[in-house]
Design brief:
Layout: E1 4-5, H1 9-21, E2 26-33, H2 40-53, E3 59-64, E4 67-72, E5 78-83, H3 87-103, E6 110-116, E7 121-128, H4 134-142, H5 154-173, H6 177-186, E8 203-204, E9 206-207, E10 211-212, H7 222-236, E11 242-248, E12 264-270, H8 281-292, H9 299-303, E13 315-321, E14 328-329, E15 332-333, E16 335-336, E17 341-342, E18 350-357, E19 360-367, H10 369-372, H11 376-391
Parallel strand pairs: 5-6, 11-13, 13-18
Antiparallel strand pairs: 1-4, 2-7, 2-16, 3-4, 6-7, 8-17, 9-19, 10-19, 11-12, 14-15, 18-19
Helix pairs in contact: 7-8, 7-11
């Protein structure tokens, strides 16, 4: 059996970004616990267990003979215990560790740091995004409570999931969906955004006021968030077409418990130009439903479907439903903490994270002011204004 596997669409996109920018897209998870409660040896052991149970975390993205692949390269976990004099210093140390991880393109697929300070301890997990998607982070988080032995079939399940997904992606790229995207992209009145030079540093994340979701709303609030992002970007931009990328992972039952990068980046388009007023929220939502009928077409195929679209987008949206499930690390109560600073990819001008908690919507934004042409405050105000109008329409 070969140790090599093909790359899926999202993996290839991440690999190309790494090759172009010399910076590896990284997924980071942060967990805070009371100071001194975590035992270093216990944390190390549970993390080693996570790696053993999830073969994706022992693969590396390789480039050979003109093409990329992923290769099985099991090794030791990169784990360090660090000490800082204050919680603020610990936060700075976390950002430094993430920055170093992103620039070390040949680093381990997963690294961990236990950063201790007098106020709290923070467990930081850093993983190659080409090997881990959002569903995978939830699986990994659920495995942090206590070590467990692998059942021996993990590698087989991972290989099977990769090959099955690759077959589905190849079929979708050659199917009628690509014609749909060609028509959608070519309908734009101007070119979509172009990639820019890589960001030089982290930008702060801004939490917006919580938005109440009307109980009368039928269906998901997700397309209305998309609609509002497009309109806010249009309000502050040059009136050209906008594209918002978001992850879409329709996992089958056989892949539901497998850690890996099985997502597809789907784009939401607003192709109206300055000479045409945008339609209503209902019109946009109807168009979005048509788009997600073709969400299985790989992003790399969509990016090659029209000369107007190079793969760069106006912004990215992450969306999730959150609950109040208790979280423990080696039996110690923990809280997952969101990022206070992130690096905006060179393929977009801003990022929006939306979390639904019962009937409330929590929004966090990060704006690269140079790329977007506006600041976080302006964008946040326009986004909330457009969202309020969309949710209270009629």
């Amino acid at each position: 059996m070969s140790d090599r596997l093909p790359l899926l669409s999202a993996q290839l996109a991440f690999a190309l970004d790494t090759q172009r920018t010399s910076r590896r897209p990284t997924v980071s998870l942060r967990f805070r616990t009371p100071p001194g409660r975590l035992v270093t040896a216990d944390v190390h052991e549970v993390l080693r267990s996570v790696v053993r149970r999830n073969p994706a975390l022992s693969h590396r993205i390789r480039f050979s003979r003109g093409s990329f692949h992923q290769e099985w390269c099991p090794g030791d976990l990169d784990f360090l215990e660090l000490h800082e004099t204050s919680e603020d210093a610990a936060g700075e140390r976390v950002r430094k560790e993430i920055d170093e991880e992103e620039t070390a393109v040949e680093a381990s697929p997963v690294s961990a740091r236990l950063v201790r300070s007098p106020e709290s301890d923070v467990l930081l997990l850093m993983m190659d995004h080409a090997l881990v998607d959002e569903q995978s982070t939830r699986i990994i988080t659920s495995q942090l409570d206590r070590p467990a032995d692998p059942d021996g079939d993990e590698l087989m399940r991972y290989r099977q999931a990769v090959h099955t997904t690759k077959e589905l992606e190849d079929a979708a790229a050659a199917g009628p969906g690509i014609t749909f995207w060609q028509h959608r992209l070519n309908a734009a009145t101007a070119d979509f955004p172009k990639a820019r030079k890589d960001s030089t540093g982290f930008a702060p994340v801004t939490a917006l006021p919580v938005v109440a979701i009307p109980r009368s709303l039928r269906g998901s609030v997700f397309p209305f968030v998309l609609f509002s992002i497009h309109r806010a970007a249009r309000d502050l931009g040059d009136g050209g077409p906008t594209a918002v990328g978001y992850p879409w992972a329709a996992r089958t039952t056989t892949r539901s418990t497998v850690v890996g990068c099985f997502l597809n980046t789907v784009i939401s388009l607003d192709t109206t130009g300055p000479d045409r007023a945008p339609g209503s929220a209902d019109e946009f939502v109807a168009g979005w439903y048509r788009e997600i009928e073709h969400a299985d077409v790989p992003f790399t195929a969509v990016a090659a479907a029209s000369p107007r679209f190079t793969g760069s987008v106006t912004g990215y949206l992450g969306y999730q439903h959150v609950g109040e499930r208790p979280l423990t690390i080696t039996g110690v109560p923990a809280v997952q903490i969101p990022s206070s600073h992130v690096r905006t990819p060179p393929t977009c001008g801003f990022q929006v994270a939306a979390a639904v908690r019962e009937h409330e919507l929590e929004l966090r934004i990060c704006v690269d002011e140079e790329a977007a042409g506006h600041g976080a405050q302006e964008f946040g105000e326009r986004l909330l204004h457009r969202l309020d109008a969309a949710l209270t329409r009629g």
